[in-house]
């Protein structure tokens, strides 16, 4: 198993290198540099030129690239052209918000999807199955933002059950007060987001159960006289849950990439919102850093999925 | 036994299919038959046709410059006020007209992107799956890599960086990422076909690789192509409208459903001016639901046939 994991890690190295090259290229395509923000009629163009030269903006691209990568290893993602603060600190503030929203969404996704998948698979082609499939079809077909807006309109504005924006209310005080307010702000986006995300899990779980039901080992267990309940929970369900476990990494990755839309609809101050704010202000250093982070997180999510898969499914290891 | 008889008829139908397989429309005919058989799928199809007539037909009578012309004096009329059935937006533009044109644009973008991704994905998937080996691994590494890229952020940055950005650019930007899913989907199927008797037989009788790929393997996957096209169109409409909703899809002079829904970004509009964003939201919802319904109905039909074989 360690061999598989090691090999998988080695595959990641070229991916990381190409990703960094691509992000660097993208960064070079973006207009502006750290000094264009400080240009005003009184600045001497020659002085700016000198500053640019000193910062190495006229070096060959590979020199600039390696300098950039070197800085990355020191945790230096550059300085925001617009806000004039290190990008790392800008992102750190928002990253925790996105992390908590993603965590809550993940928990909700699985706590909704697993019971639905089980019901659907167990009562195949009965009314329970039909209703789960209708639900699944709706969540699959609806574009996320349409779903969020309708949810926000109904539960946030019309019924007023939940706050419509932000991550914590200004009046909240004390540890529990802040925590409560945070969860209160996250709950509606998290539920809506989780409902949209359940699709894959429900579908896979249902298919897994339906397929496993007719496997030989299930028939063997039944013919041995194992009670139906145990056949279902110990034999069928366990095997069907395996692929779901492996999806965890991909689910988390998916959540991060979708964070932009949910955070935009709910004005939730996370990384996705930071990205949109930065693009509005043309803050290209922050954008570059965020794209790199999104890319690396996706890589890690895929890695996590593959590792979980190799742990739970011995067949993968042999290949 | 009945089994045997069934097998015999199945072989006969297989033969028929093979004979028909050289004619591309056969897959389309099968798809139509499957839709007509299910009442709900037929309803969904009729809804799609009505929406297409409404948006594409309606657009024929509209002039883009006129529709997007600003007239501040007329801004924010409510439902049915001053002859505007769905009211007007902040620039005094008629929402109904914007809805018709926006619907057409969003559907057009969805279709255009799908045409590109299907062609590229199909060719790449065929080549990768048919040849296998080193070609396959190289192509699949590239596909893997593109799939780990953060698609939305990169598209958004590129929309702001590219000079002369327009609808065509947007189509290519979305397609740049979209083909990978299609390629992967077809590759796995072609991979399972390459060892089949008909491919080997054709090879022995001296057909070239290109002939086998496009004249023999391709017709066998027409029904898969149709399913994929239908579902991909829905997906791409979703991507375009999401981007336009965020403000980085179609340029502001080109109406899109996403831009109209984007009015809901302002809380004031959400509460007080639902006519701005609600019709577009509902239209997009109906489009997505009905296209996906037809796609899933086809998928179920396709699955059942595969299991039978």
Comma- or semicolon-separated keywords:
heterodimer; A: 319 residues; B: 309 residues; mainly alpha
Tell me what you see in this structure:
The complex is a heterodimer of chains A (319) and B (309). Chain A is mainly alpha-helical and 319 residues long. Chain A contains twelve helices and no strands. The longest helix of chain A has 39 residues, at 175-213. In chain B, 78% of the residues lie in helices and 0% in strands. Chain B has 14 helices and no strands. Chain B is elongated and about 75 Å long. Chain A binds chain B through residues 15, 18-19, 22, 26, 29-31, 137-138, 140-146, 149-150, 152-153, 157, 164-165, 257, 260-261, 264-265, 275-276, 279, 282, 287, 290-291, 294-295, 298-299, 302, and chain B through 144-145, 148-154, 156-158, 160-161, 234, 237-238, 241-242, 245-246, 248, 261, 264-265, 267, 270-271, 274, 277, 281, 284-285, 288-289, 291-293, 296.
Show unreliable segments of chain A: none
- Kindly estimate the percentage of residues of chain A that lie in beta strands according to DSSP: under 5%
Bulk shape of chain A = globular
- Considering residues with a beta carbon less than 8 A from a beta carbon on another chain, report the largest interface and each chain's count: A-B, 41 and 39 residues
Q: Spans of chain B with pLDDT under 50 lasting ≥5 residues? A: 1-5, 17-25, 305-309
Which of globular, elongated, flat, extended, rod-shaped describes the shape of chain B?
A: elongated
